[in-house]
Amino acid sequence: MSHIQKLFLLLDKKTKQHLVWLVIFSIFVSVIEAVGISAIMPFIDIATNFDNIHSNQYYQWFFEFFGFKDDVDFTIAFGFILLGFYIFRGMMNLLYSYVMAYFTQNIYAQITKRLFKAYLAMPYQIFTNKNSSYLTKAIITEASSVSAVVKSTLEVIYEVFVIVFVYVLMLIVNWEITLVLTVILAIKILFLIKTVSKKIKNIGAERATIQAKYYEIINRLFGNFKQTKLQDKNRLEASSNTFHIIVDEYAKVNVTRAFLTDFPRLLLETTGFSLITLSLIALLYLNQSNVAYILPTLSLFVLALYRLLPSVNRIVSGYNTLMYQHKSIDIVDEELRTDQEDFTSETIKFAHKIELKGIDFAYQEKKILDEVSLTINKGDKIALVGESGSGKSTLVDLIIGLYRPSQGEIRIDNILLNESNLQDWRSQIGYIPQQVYLFDGTIAENICFGRKLDKSLLETVLKQASIFDLLQTKQGVETLVGEGGIQLSGGQKQRIAIARAIYGQPEILVLDEATSALDSETEEKIMDEIYKISQNKTLITIAHRLSTIKGCNKIYVIKSGAIQKV
Q1: Cβ count within 10 A of residue 198
Q2: Which of 133, 368, 407, 552 is at 20 to 30 A from 460, Cα to Cα?
Q3: φ and ψ of 363, to 5 deg
Q4: What single DSSP character describes residue 315?
Q5: SS3 of residue 466 by DSSP
Q6: Domains in the chain, ordered, with CATH?
Q7: Among 112, 79, 129, 99, residue whose Cα is nearest residue 29
C-alpha cells in the first residue's frame, strides 16, 4: 500500500469530504492564477498600441457594447477591471491559505486525539511492552509530520493545476518556445526526483530512528533525576556523551535535509531565469523590427515562468517532504492498528465473592501462573506472599482486570468478567503502588487525578490518610508537590497515594508492596491506617514483610506459578 493510500485511510469520512471540497477550491484558485497571468497580455497589447482595440474583434465588441467614445477611457477602464481582479485574486489566495492551514491543523488535532485515545484504550499488557518516550514521540512529532505531509500533498495538487493551466496558455501563445522550455525543465525535475528525492527518503527514515533515541535518552535521564544525579562522574559523562552523539547525528540529518530541500529551488530558479533571458533574446532576435509587437508575448512568458518556477519548486519540495516524512505515516498507521479494548457500559456488582477458576497466564511464552484457583469473599483481607518474580503482582493485575488470563475465567458474584463490564469493575478498585506517581501540581490535582473535585470528599480522604493536619501547616490542598513528588517524603507520598485510592470510594483496596520502601515505624503507621480505612472493604495486599500482613485473615503463598493457602 502506498503512503498516499495509507494517508487517505487515516482520515475519517467527514475529513475526506472536506478534502474533496478543498481540491475543488484548489482548482478554482489555480484557474484564477492562470487568468491573472493571461490578463496582463491583452492589457499591454492595447496600452502599447490603441489601434489594436479596433483591429481585434473581441476588443472592438467590448468597446462598442459598453459605449466607449475614447480609446484612453477604454484602456483605463480595462486597467481598473484588471486591478479589481488582482485584488480579488489576492483575497482568494489569502482565503485558500487560511482554509489550507485550518484543514491541516485539524488533521493534526484529529490524529493526535486518535493516537491519544488509542493509547488509553490499549490493553495494559501491550502497554508494558512499549516505551513511553516512543508513545510521546508518536503523539507530538509523528502526528505533526503527517499533517505536514497532507499540507505538502495539497500544495502539490494546487501547483499541478496552476502549471497545467499556465502551460496550456503558453502553448497557445507560442508552442515552439514552450516545448523547448518544457524539455529542459522536465530533465531537471527528473534528475531531482531520481537523485535528491531518493536521498531525502533515506535520511527521512534515518531521522525517525535517531529521533526515537533522542526522546528515549531524555526520558531516561530526566524521568528519574535523583538516580541520574547519584551516578558517578564516569557514568554521567558517558550519558552526556551518548546524548551529544545523538544530538550531533540529529543535527547532521537536519542539515542534510535543509541543503537538499534548498538545492532543487536554487537549481530550478537558476535554470528558469536563464531560460527566461534566453527566450527574450530569441524573441528579440526574431522580431528586431517590431519590439512593440512582441512586448505582450514577452510579458506573458516572463510572468508565466516567474509564476511557474515557484510552482515547480513547491511540487518538488512537496514530493521531498512526502519522502522525508513517509516513515511518520507508517508509524501512525501502525500505532492506530494496535489492539484496543472495546468497552461497553455494563455494570457489575461485587456483593459476595470473586472467583478465579483454572487461571493460566504466560508472558512472552514464559508461564507465570498455572491452574490458579482462588476465592475472595467480600470483606476479606487477603495477603499474597512469595519470592520476587513468583507471580504475585501478575495475579493481582488479573484480579483487577489489567491482564486477561490465557486460560480460565474470573467471575464476580458468578458474573463472568469480560470487556462488557471490565471498565465498571476497574472503577471499583483503589490501587496503591510501591512507586507512587505524582505529577507537578497541587495536592488536590494529584488526588483527584482527572476526577471532579469534591472539596468535602477531598477533606475526608485526607483525614483518613492522616495527612490533612500536615497540609494545614503549608498551603493546604493547594500545596505543590513538585515533579515526581520531590517536595514530599516517602511516607507523605504514600499517604497521598492512599487518599487518591479511596477518593473514588472503591469496593476493593489493592496494595502492591506499597510500603516496601518505608522504614518499619512509618510502615506500621500507614498499615494501621489502611486497615482502619478498609474495615468495610475488601483488601488485597502483596506483602514483603510479616508485619505488613498482621491484619489479614487469609494468607496465600505463590510459588512456581501455583498458589497455596497458609
Answers
A1: 12
A2: 552
A3: -125, 115
A4: H
A5: coil
A6: 3-336 (1.20.1560.10), 353-565 (3.40.50.300)
A7: 99
